[in-house]
Amino acid sequence: MQRRQYLKTWLREERLQAGIKDMSDQLSRRQLLELVGKAGGSAAVYQVALALGMMPGRAAAERVSVAKAPAGAGKNILLLGAGLANLCIAYELEKAGYQCTFVESSERIGGRSLTLRAGDTVDEIGQPRKVMFDNESHLYFNAGPARIPAHHHLLHGYCRELGVELEWFVNDNRYALTQDDASLDGKPVMIREYMADARGFMSELLAKAINKNIFSEEFSKEDSERLFEFVRRYGDLDEKGFYKGTARAGYASGGMIEPGVKKGPLDFSELLKNNFWKSGMHFPDGESQSAPLMQAVGGNDHVFKAFLPHLKSTFILNAPVISITNTPAGVDVVYSHEGKHKKISADYCFNSIPLPLMTGVDNNFSGKYREGIAKARRGKLTKIAFQTSERFWEKEDIYGGISWTNQPVQQIWYPSHGVYKQKGVMLASYTWSRTNSEAFGRMSPEQRLEDAKQQVSKVHADFPKYVENGVSVVWHRMNHHLGCTTSWSAEDKEKYFKTMQMPDGRHYMVGDQISYHSGWQEGAFSSAHFALAHFNERVHKA
Question: pTM to 2 decimals?
Answer without folding.
Answer: 0.86
